Automatic annotation (TrEMBL):
One family name in Pfam for this protein: MFS_1
Residues that span the membrane, as ranges: 20-39, 59-76, 83-101, 107-126
SUPFAM superfamilies: MFS general substrate transporter (SSF103473)
Species the sequence originates in: candidate division MSBL1 archaeon SCGC-AAA259I09
Listed GO MF terms: transmembrane transporter activity
Protein name per Swiss-Prot or TrEMBL: Major facilitator superfamily (MFS) profile domain-containing protein
Keyword Disulfide bond annotated: no
Highest taxon above the source species: Archaea
Keyword Transmembrane helix attached: yes
Keyword entries, A-Z: Membrane, Transmembrane, Transmembrane helix
Stretches assigned to the Major facilitator superfamily (MFS) profile domain: 21-146
Amino acid sequence: MLFFKSKRICNGINVESPWVILGIAWVIIFSLYTLLQTIPPLLPILNKNLDISHFQGGILYAAPLLMIVLFSYLLGHWSDRLGVFRSVKFGVTLAVIFAILRTISRAYYQLLFFNLIFGFGFAWCYPNLPKIVKNSTFTPLPSFAE
């Protein structure tokens, strides 16, 4: 049994329910991975319209992954100090804004910059969503140590 200090109800749904929190975390990570996977199907179009090589197309796809690898640990550590929910909100906002800005970019380096910042926003969310789910479902066991 989970013990919460208060029950927050929004439109008849208990938003502190572990299932609701797990569902929201799943939707967030699914949406971010969907945005991450939009570049490879567009590479033939980008190669033709932006006149870029296959190598540059690979860099476009690898740039957000590189940001995730480089910054997830550091941003996960910072989010413990800033607050996990606040970090996820900031990361999702940053990732969505720059994913939308990717659609209006007209040059290769502009698209690369938007992809890098999208990856940085993704890196804010990636280590924190499991923390949110763990904190909402974990009930500490009683200690028998004296």
